[in-house]
Here is the input.
Amino acid sequence: MPEPAPRPYHHGDLRAALIAAAEAEIDAHGVESFSLRAVAKRAGVSHAAPAHHFGDANGLLTALAAEGFARFVETQRAHEAAAPPGQPDRLVAAGLGYIAFATGHPALFRLMFASRRPHFADPALQAAARAAYEHLLENIAEVRGIADPASDPAALTDATAMWGIVHGLADLMQAGRAGFLLGLPEGERQGVLAGIIRRGLPG
Here is the structure.
């Protein structure tokens, strides 16, 4: 069967279409076998198009990871917006958003946190990852009532502890290893997860 002819794109759309195709490709086949040729075929464009925009396969995965971190923070903020106002409820809600992103986008989550293929020295990816960490620090600062968490050892310790708890839960959930939690009805599961996250709140 002949490959589909490349589809025309308006200026500015092709980059986004290739990133979307890259995510669909890792969802379907994982990061290990990822290639620009497969992405181009999925997007219905010429084989040269992804290389023109991203250089190589890892360059495209770098752009996808950067977008992933932005969406990751957006998911946390959406959960915070639905929570009761004020701390520590917002921090707990952010943790639930973290887990929701991981379970909703497992391949992308693994690319962001467990793959060596993205270029983490890339400025855009560095900025996106840093923004995600700073969002956690902001929530910790509000819980502790401090102005500059980045220079406060106790705040940094609290942030690391909370990150470890939530990331561990997210990793177990997206890997299907948390059998007890996965067997609960959705509403009950969210309550149990929130309870676990609360155990890690700064004292």
